[in-house]
TrEMBL record:
Protein name, UniProt field: Alpha-(1,6)-fucosyltransferase
Keywords: Membrane, Transmembrane, Transmembrane helix
Keyword Iron-sulfur in record: no
Superkingdom of the source species: Eukaryota
Any one Gene Ontology molecular-function term assigned to this protein's record: alpha-(1->6)-fucosyltransferase activity
Ranges that cross the membrane: 28-55
GO-annotated biological processes: protein N-linked glycosylation
Length: 588
């Protein structure tokens, strides 16, 4: 009886529901509910697809010097791959990812931990082991190798050895053995190897700061660099026949670093022509707290142009009236300004500039012949020599910049190659000899191919034709058409509007230093003064050296800065990479 009553009630309820469902208000409610479900499903589908896009590229990151543990200077880098709205997309992407793929959330935490731990080692004051362990729950020795960072202390030691005459005036160990391999202990006990390593340079060795063959550099680069070093490092600086030219770097407010380098290139030409040893004096851009012991000296950033013995001797003779009268010593005031800026290019190597490789592209054509080819060749040789070895300080600036720009990418690569349970599971292996003496000579990792682009605008319009950022990007697209895997750009510019326009190119990865830029048109001197001496020197040098190491370069030959970058690349094994310029040098 009870089941029958239950069935009866169910039929009554069903009929009642059917009557209610056939009513118009109920139908409206049902239709509205179904539409809501459809719209919600569609919205979630769109969010999911957009979230996936957000994870495919490198997300926008902005690190400030005030709260980052990475900083050893006021420079750091940003990377941007899409427009402003992506920051909002990232929030959605994180939400979707946390719901659907929890393991990747753990990976993100590991990447952040490793990136920050690496960065802590780059701080002005490296944390003690106990402090590091408390902060990260790790020991320093448990950190994996940093592929994008250089061992600056070791590099400085190796380079000093390669830049110094040993006992009895013997030549530095410029053999065909590279970098740290020259310090391999076993070679010190083998008499044949010791003899080989001390052979004079004329027996086939060439300067270790030159990369690539003769065909990959300006003509005679290896020989010229060797000869300049020998000229600047006499065996006996107290020899009465040794003459000196002592000169401070230009320090007028309107002179940028490019102009200072061009001026010193002229003085080096005069010194070689007159058989004098060039000795540089005060460098105003190094007159800041970051340079510490080498304040006010070129040696804050790069190795000095001559030995300390010759410098001491030259500064001793400065106070000697007889030395000035005999011409044993001269200063910058001994020459007219025109003699310095248009100095006669040394002819001791003939005229190698007459057969420069035509690898400069302007308006789609290669430039084979132009005015001032001798000056272009010489300035490249002079600047390469003056910048032949970076100091530990400069190396550290580059480490900070690379870590800020590429640190997360490097961490992802490293974590993909080690135990997935790191840092819970740590396997420490002693460094092998091949790691210490062979692989340590490889350059730090950067995402390649890498295109460097220097966009010069602002007050430069009074000296050359300036073009819009869009024209630079047209040249970048030309390179990409031939090298379709190119997507990374190291961008250097003083203009904020250029940085803003990068958002219009979401398929490119832009890296740039995080520094205050010009808004509007002000003079370069005013802009640099607003940054302060330390920042206005450090960040351009980082950009310069990153441009030299990049695979491709786009610039404006009308800019002295671009002109010198081109010269450094053409004496650094990059001739066949070519150079796309938006204009000609103003003297051509």
């Amino acid at each position: 009886m009870e089941p029958t009553n239950q069935k009866f009630l169910e039929r009554v309820v069903s009929q009642k529901a059917l009557q209610m469902g056939s009513s118009f208000p109920c139908q409206i409610c049902v239709v509205g509910f179904l539409c809501g479900v459809c719209l919600t499903s569609l919205f979630l589908a769109v969010l999911t697809s957009v979230g996936t896009f957000g994870f495919t590229g490198i997300s926008f990151s902005s690190l400030s010097m005030g709260n980052s543990p990475l900083n050893s200077s006021s420079e750091i880098s940003n990377v941007i791959t899409s427009s402003d709205y992506q920051s909002k997309v990232k929030e959605t992407a994180r939400w979707v990812d946390s719901k659907g793929r929890e393991p990747e959330s753990d990976d993100d935490e590991r990447v952040s931990l490793l990136t920050e731990a690496w960065g802590a080692l780059l701080a002005d004051r490296e944390p003690e082991e106990s402090e590091f362990s408390k902060r990260f729950g790790l020991s320093k020795s448990s950190l994996p190798n940093t592929p994008h960072l250089e061992n600056c202390k070791l590099s400085a030691q190796v380079n000093k050895r390669l830049d110094t005459r040993s006992g009895a005036g013997r030549f530095p160990p410029w053999t065909t053995w590279k970098g740290s391999l020259n310090m391999y202990p076993a070679t010190e006990t083998d008499e044949n190897l010791r003899s080989f390593k001390n052979q004079p340079v004329s027996d086939g060795a060439y300067p270790p700061w030159i990369v690539g063959s003769d065909e990959e550099n300006y003509p005679l680069t290896r020989k010229v660099q060797s000869d300049i070093w020998i000229h600047q490092h006499p065996v006996n600086c107290h020899d009465p026949n040794i003459k000196f030219l002592v000169a401070d770097w230009e320090k007028l407010p309107g002179f940028g670093i490019g102009a200072q380098l061009a001026g010193m290139a002229g003085l080096l030409a005069i010194a070689i022509n007159e058989k004098r040893v060039l000795v540089t004096g005060y460098f105003n851009r190094a007159d800041h707290d970051g340079c510490k012991a080498s304040r006010g000296s070129w040696s804050c950033y790069f190795f000095l142009e001559t030995s300390q013995e010759c410098r001491d001797r030259a500064f001793e003779l400065i106070t000697n009236k007889e030395a000035w009268e005999k011409g044993t010593i001269k200063g910058k005031d001994s020459y007219k300004s025109k003699e310095i800026w248009t100095a006669k290019v040394p002819r001791v190597w003939g005229d190698p500039w007459s057969y420069l490789q035509p690898t400069t592209d302007i308006n789609g054509s290669l430039i084979a012949v132009h005015h001032k080819m001798d000056r272009r060749w010489w300035r490249a040789q002079a600047v390469r020599y003056l910048m032949r070895f970076q100091t530990e300080y400069t190396c550290g600036l580059l480490n900070v910049a690379r870590h800020a720009a590429f640190g997360k990418e490097a961490a992802k690569m490293v974590l993909a190659s080690i135990d997935r349970d790191w840092p819970k599971v740590i396997t420490n292996q002693p460094k092998s000899e091949i790691e210490e003496f062979v692989w340590s000579n490889h350059r730090p990792w950067v995402p390649r191919p890498l295109l460097s682009m220097h966009v010069r605008m602002g007050d430069k319009a009074c000296e050359m034709k300036v073009v819009k950022f869009e024209e630079y990007m047209e040249l970048a697209h030309r390179i990409q058409m031939h090298f379709p895997h190119l997507k990374n750009v190291w961008l250097s510019t003083e203009m904020q509007e250029v940085i803003d326009k990068t958002r219009s190119y979401p398929h490119w990865n832009f890296y740039y230093t995080n520094v205050t830029r010009q808004v509007g048109n002000v003079s370069m001197a005013t802009y640099e003064a607003s940054l302060g001496r330390k920042t206005s020197t450090n960040y351009p040098l980082v950009n310069f050296l990153m441009a030299v190491e990049s695979d491709f370069f786009i610039g404006a030959l009308g800019s002295t800065w671009c002109f010198l970058i081109d010269g450094m690349r053409n004496t650094g094994g990059k001739v066949m990479a070519g150079y796309l310029s938006v204009n000609k040098d103003r003297f051509w």
